[in-house]
Amino acid sequence: xxxxxxxxxxxxxxxxxxxxxxxxxxxxxxxxxxxxxxxxxxxxxxxxxxxxxxxxxxxxxxxxxxxxxxxxxxxxxxxxxxxxxxxxxxxxxxxxxxxxx
Length: 101
What we know:
The protein is mainly beta. The protein has one domain. It has one helix and six strands, in the order E-E-H-E-E-E-E. The mean pLDDT is 88.
């Protein structure tokens, strides 16, 4: 796998996430799909400027998602059937996704 500058380790962790940059959305999604990336971050402070999560719904293999966005409708996350871990906001609070249908 070729390393992408947006694919990096979370500080204080050994887990790598792809930080999606909405200015390069199509390129990012293509790279994620080609490299079978399962961990995604949507962070308004690190390049994700959209007020929707719709673009990531194409990434059906997401297992871990971290969302740092305000006022975004997350009800469509149920379309991500492989999702195992969801963290919302700065408190790193994990949300139980086992009931998403």
